[in-house]
Automatic annotation (TrEMBL):
Record keyword Electron transport present: no
Spans through the membrane: 137-160, 225-247, 259-279, 285-312, 324-341, 347-365
Keyword Transmembrane helix on entry: yes
Pfam families to which the protein is assigned, alphabetical: UNC-93 (PF05978)
Stated name of the protein: Protein unc-93 homolog A
Listed GO biological process terms: regulation of muscle contraction; regulation of potassium ion transport
A molecular function (GO) term: potassium channel regulator activity
Keywords: Glycoprotein, Membrane, Transmembrane, Transmembrane helix
Biological classification of the source: Eukaryota, Metazoa, Spiralia, Lophotrochozoa, Mollusca
Length: 387
């Protein structure tokens, strides 16, 4: 009896190893521990804290990256859009932008900014012929990003300890095994929850690709200019960071389901609003509002999917998270593949479709998990002797 009580105390909550710290999930308790069953695998406490730090660093890097791009392109003149009807949901990436110079590569307002020493017209003609003046700020921005990447590579190469890919083989050269790839496919085929979470995981990649690729071009660049993209995306990154931290802490009190419902309302409502909204250059505050709402929904989706995978697949973590990255990457591929050929309203419809399907199938995962835990606890109470 003491063993049953101790087992019940040790396993009444599930510690989620992904997201922000160790998050308990009282809404989805784990079955009690049984000596005859395989014990739940415990996660190393060190990566939990490191994951939190890594997420914060990634968000901060997004903020600094957007700030750099906005600063570099800040020399671009004011809005020159003459056809706002082609922006927003009506934006067609295949149509020529004859009346919208906002979509052109950034150029200097005055030649003196490029030629401060008063170079001769012949040199200026040569530079313009080879396209050096119009691409100057693009090259500067790419140079800054490449420089940051080189510094990061050198830092990792010099300071990071060697990583052993296979923990079971501490000696010798560890190689990436084909077993992990086969285990990933086998896990997807045999696990019903994994199959049900496929659409939601794909949407995780699609929504990130849409906000960074389509929203920035169809709405921000087209209506108010490319030099405002960084400022709007900074708002997105700040809200994403704050909500990621807050929601990762609050999940232990309310469970996963309310947050996924909130994400569905945020992203679904924002997508419908973007479908109906005609962007205007005189009302720039709405660009920041939509970016903030999307960042809030993205914070929920990223943290809660990570936490859900860590909770559901404790016995096969590697294969589960390999599936998570696989299907999320497929979402990125799909979104960027149709980005250059479809009208924005069609892309919004596809986003809403994947979101609806993902949340619909997630509901079955939630119901299945709660019924399973309810049966386990009912069975355990029947076996427990009365005092």
């Amino acid at each position: 009896m003491e063993e049953q009580i101790l087992g019940l105390e040790n396993n009444k909550t599930s510690s989620l190893s992904m997201g922000y710290g160790s998050v308990e999930s009282p809404k989805n308790p784990q079955p009690p521990f049984n000596k005859d069953d395989e014990p739940h695998k415990k996660t190393d406490p060190v990566p939990i804290g490191k994951t939190k730090i890594l997420k914060n660093v990634l968000v901060v890097s997004q903020i600094w990256g957007n700030l750099i791009s906005s600063t570099v392109f800040a020399v671009t003149p004011g809005n020159t859009t003459e056809d706002l009807d082609s922006c927003g949901a009506n934006f067609d990436p295949t149509a020529p932008a004859a009346n919208n110079s906002n979509l052109d590569r950034p150029e200097d307002e005055e030649d003196e900014l490029i030629y401060p020493n008063g170079r001769c017209n012949a040199d200026r003609y040569v530079d313009n012929y080879f396209g050096l003046s119009s691409d100057r700020w693009v090259y500067i921005l790419c140079g800054i990003y490449v420089g940051c990447a080189v510094i990061a590579f050198c830092t990792i190469a010099l300071l990071l300890d060697n990583i052993t890919l296979d923990k079971k083989q501490q000696t010798g050269d560890a190689k990436i095994s084909v077993k992990l790839f086969l285990s990933t496919l086998k896990h997807w085929w045999q696990s019903t929850p994994q199959k049900l979470l496929t659409f939601l995981t794909i949407y995780s990649g699609i929504e990130q690709a849409f906000i960074t690729g389509d929203f920035t071009k169809s709405y921000i660049s087209c209506a108010i200019g490319i030099w405002n993209v960084g400022y709007v995306m900074i708002c997105y990154g700040v809200v994403d960071a704050i909500c990621s931290f807050a929601f990762g802490r609050l999940v232990q009190f309310v469970g996963h389901a309310p947050f996924f419902l909130l994400a569905f309302l945020l992203h679904g409502g924002t997508q419908v609003a973007l479908f109906l909204w005609q962007p205007e250059a005189d009302n720039q505050i709405l660009f920041y509002v939509f970016a903030a709402l999307w960042g809030m929904g993205d914070a929920i989706i990223q943290t809660q999917i990570n936490a859900l995978y860590g909770y559901l697949f404790t016995n096969n973590t590697e294969a589960a998270f390999a599936n998570y990255r696989l299907w999320e990457s497929i979402g990125f591929i799909l979104a960027f593949a149709w980005s250059g050929i479809l009208v924005t309203k069609v892309k919004l419809g596809l986003c809403l479709g994947f979101l609806t399907l993902g949340m619909f199938f997630y509901t079955f995962v939630e119901i299945q998990d709660r019924r399973k835990n309810q049966r386990v606890f009912t069975k355990d109470e029947d076996k427990s002797p009365l005092f």
